[in-house]
Amino acid sequence: MKAIKETILIVEDDSQIRNFISYILEQEGFSCITSGTAQNAMTLLVSQNVDLVLLDMGLPDFDGMQVIKKLRQWSSIPIIVVSARDQEKEKVSALDAGADDYLTKPFSAMELKARVRVAIRHLNSVSKSVEKPILSVGDLSLDLEKHQVFLEGEPIHITGMEYKLLSLLFKNMGKVLTTQHIIKEIYGAGYGTDTQALRALMAGLRRKIEKIPAKPRYIKTEIGVGYRLSDE
Q: What is the enclosing helix (H) or strand (E) of 18?
């Protein structure tokens, strides 16, 4: 029997989907609690020790976007949106509102488990980041104290802006960051919405850390949404 790990709150009004998600994640050793409405979900969030939220956007009482915004007013708990809405604009809006990832229905059990594992690893890495000045994924490492980057154990030279970008991705490892969020963090709130500079910066960074920049191992592109530093 697998040991119980983190507790996941599944907020989904479709009972079949809710039961399917719960069954899959409990087989992985997670503890699941469920809710069919946003209002009940908020009650559970303040009364239970929840580590991750799987949130449907089309709830009968409140829209999922409202739930994300309300939850982000007092909690940084990871949120994975699970929705049939597959438009890029919907994904970007949910992520900018504070969601950590977006899973489009229909999805496979394998994809569901992979997204949950990524979110849990990100949660655990954030809790340990203060104690761990060196962050790593694969053969790529970032020394937060020395502001140095290492590839296969050897230091590599990157520019200040490239370090700023890579550091932002490392601190949010596994999490999808929207293009506009990255621009705001890298260039400042007053920069605007032009993505050309970010694309050029990303291309330069990939040439230095990826063996095949056109098929990146580390920095993944979420088409129409943004970027993610893979922790696989």
A: helix 15-27
Alpha-carbon distance 143 to 124, whole Å? Answer: 18
Q: In 3-state terms, the chain is what percent helix, strand and coil (to 5)?
A: 40, 20, 35
Q: CATH 1.10.10.10 in the chain, residues?
A: 129-229
Q: In angstroms, what CA-CA distances link 102 with 61, 108, 213, 229? A: 21, 14, 25, 15
For 171, the token pair is: 């601190």
User: For the chain, where do the domains classified as CATH 3.40.50.2300 start and end?
Assistant: 7-127
Fold of 7-127: Rossmann fold (3.40.50)
Residue 178: predicted pLDDT = 93
Stated pTM of the model:
0.73
Residue range 54-99, pLDDT digits in tens: 999 989 998 889 999 988 888 888 999 998 876 788 888 999 888 9
Range 129-229 classified under CATH 1.10.10.10: yes
